[in-house]
Design a protein that fits this description.
Distance between the termini: 69 Å
Largest sheet: 9 strands, mixed
Radius of gyration: 22 Å
Number of strands: 12
Number of domains: 2
Number of helices: 16
Strand content: 5-15%
CATH architecture of the largest domain: Alpha-Beta Barrel
Helix content: 25-40%
Length: 457
């Protein structure tokens, strides 16, 4: 027998943690779901009907699993949140109710008054200036060859950190929503604009969430875009697989509509893919694996776009686990975004340096095509920039300056670290508007970008 000398010792057990998915009827630990069988829990209509939208529904669902102090904290949080609350039973069942304050899924969807901190003084409601780049309602045209189509304003869940909180979901006490294109008649204006612009080759269908489109409307939109000769690529965007994966199993009409668009695109030499949105490895269970297998067997490419969120995935090992778990399900990690400057969720943002450090840690832990690019969607409409591609980063004052020569040449775009992550001395500077202007101008000068009067931040 020939002795084989291994260059590396066996991998530790934690190296396979990404393959260990939550199994069984885990939802039964929630009082309201204790008697719910598997068939019922996997019914997407049951999931939608029993989604939590109010503090009273939350209390009825979890009973005494969480403390009365937590329920009161959530009640006040619901009142002050800029986004409406809607959480699927699937997501509710994945929260650790023994420690809800630190749970990554609770953090994303259920606001707590005790965790709210003041918004950054330079924050605006539409920080990415999508409305300024909208030639017709429901269409954002920023990049030369790509447009973002927003045909609806509802989602299966509402994320606290949604960059489109200016338009998505019902009005709240904090925000009156902007109206998007919500009807097939209004969509025609977007289709006409796209058809008249031959440079538009790439269309993202988002919203809202494409999961909420009836199958006939999903096909209507898909076919209308495929009918335009110069449209070569289409991305259907949905958070659904992360928070209601069972819909892909129990709503065959929707899954078949998606498949039909993908297949027609392939026959036409056009690429149609699904983009989804997992933020925590805790969101991925045996149900997710089963749903993703359906898409994989149908030849549907799935890519993931995460948001870097404090208390959710801003730990290097957590992000590595998420990336490897997605790869295990044949979901390609595509982007990790810096958290946009969104009202009412300053407690969720992290620093640019945090993103740089995590990307360095993750890179090399798996194949390059399963390694996400960490990006900053530059406030003011500069588009997505590699997070480390800043022209200047003032770490002391928390100011990163980016340029976007192929998007909006000659302009400076500024991303701000959360103020509570800065020293007390620097925090005091941000209280004074004149000092804010001085710090920003100095950062732009150091970046060497001309035309600082064009800063959009």
């Amino acid at each position: 027998m020939i002795e084989i000398l291994h260059a590396k010792p066996p991998a530790p057990r934690e190296a396979l943690e990404h393959t260990q998915l939550l199994q069984g009827e885990f939802w039964r630990k929630i009082p309201a779901y204790r008697e719910v069988d598997e068939k019922t829990f996997l019914d997407h209509l049951w999931q939608q009907k029993h989604s939590v939208k109010t503090p009273q529904e939350l209390l009825t669902t979890i009973g005494k699993v969480a403390s009365s102090e937590f329920i009161e904290d959530a009640r006040l949080g619901f009142e002050r949140a800029p986004m409406a609350v809607r959480v699927s039973p699937y997501a509710i069942s994945l929260i650790d109710w023994n420690d809800p304050y630190r749970d990554p899924i609770r953090t994303q969807f259920i606001p707590l008054a005790s965790r709210l901190i003041s918004d950054h003084p330079r924050l605006t409601l539409d920080s990415l200036h999508e409305q300024q780049d909208s030639p017709v309602p429901g269409l954002v045209h920023r990049y030369v060859d790509k447009a973002l189509f927003l045909p609806l304003a509802v989602c299966p869940v509402y994320c606290r950190f949604c960059t489109r909180s200016y338009a998505i979901g019902p009005d709240t006490e904090e925000v009156d929503k902007v109206t998007l294109a919500r009807t097939p008649a209004q969509w025609q204006d977007a289709f006409q604009y796209i058809a008249e612009r031959p440079e538009l080759e790439d269309i993202v269908v988002s919203g809202g969430d494409a999961y909420q489109l009836p199958p006939k409307n999903l096909e209507l939109i898909g076919n209308a875009l495929l009918d335009i000769p110069h449209v070569r690529r289409m991305r259907i965007a949905t958070k659904g697989p992360a928070i209601m994966p069972m819909k892909l199993l129990t709503h065959p009409e929707w899954t078949d509509a998606l498949t039909a668009i993908v297949d027609r695109g392939r026959r036409s030499g056009k690429e149609v893919v699904l983009h989804t949105h997992f933020n925590s490895p805790n969101e991925i269970t045996w149900i997710t694996e089963k749903a993703m297998r359906v898409l994989f067997e149908r030849g549907i490419v799935v890519r993931n776009q995460s948001v870097l969120i404090r208390g959710v995935n801003d730990d290097p090992k957590t992000m590595r686990l998420l990336v490897k778990r997605l790869g295990h399900l044949n979901v390609h990690p595509y982007y990790v975004y810096m958290h946009d400057l969104v009202r009412g969720v300053e407690d969720l943002r992290t620093t640019v340096q945090c993103a740089i450090d995590i990307e360095k840690f993750v890179r090399g832990s798996t194949a390059g095509f399963n390694t996400p690019t960490f990006v900053c969607d530059a406030p003011g409409g500069g588009g997505k920039r590699d997070v480390h591609s800043y022209d200047f980063y003032d770490r002391e004052n928390g100011i990163a300056v980016y340029s976007a020569p192929s998007v909006k040449p000659g302009q400076a775009f500024v991303y701000f670290d959360p103020i509570d992550k800065l020293t007390p001395e620097v925090q005091a500077r941000w209280v004074i508007p004149e000092m804010q202007d001085e710090m920003i101008r100095a950062a732009i000068r150091n970046a060497g970008i001309q035309g600082e009067e064009l800063v959009l931040a």
